[in-house]
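Form 7-S
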Amino acid sequence: MNSIKDLLKQSGMTNIIVSIIFGIFGVILCIFHEPAMKLISCLIGLLFLVVGLARIVNYIKGRGRDEYLNGDLLIGVILSVFGIVAIVYINTIGMILRTIVAIWIIYAGISKTYLSLKLKNLGASAWIVSLVLSIIMIIFGIYILFNTGAIITLIGAIMIAYAIIDIIENIIFIRKLN
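Output:
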């Protein structure tokens, strides 16, 4: 029984260390959001390029043997081009990603505003909360649209919050073992 208890304590301590590292990474994302966005864009470009080249190689290896491989050349070329464009135009890719996310959040906020007004017409009491939350979503979407580091900072903040919650949970777990 003691060895299981020690093993669980050790596991809890390992989880705390991992959470601390995760939290540090979140702080780095919050502070250095611009280089992080460039790194993410570059990694996405490399991923597209590698998958595209693999599809082209797959096509060349299987040419004439399998009918279903014929699309690999086209897909491979398209993915490779996207990969090269993402690597060459790192700043543009980050801006496009941020703009798409911001527009989606604004659209969702407008849709929820419309829904909250429908709830008001139906006499539901929750329409006020729904309206306030939808307006906050619209404001947040506009903020993301005009703030270059907002998405990366948000991801970093979520990582920090997760790390703190996980550390507290593991400390409570270890204390309960005693």
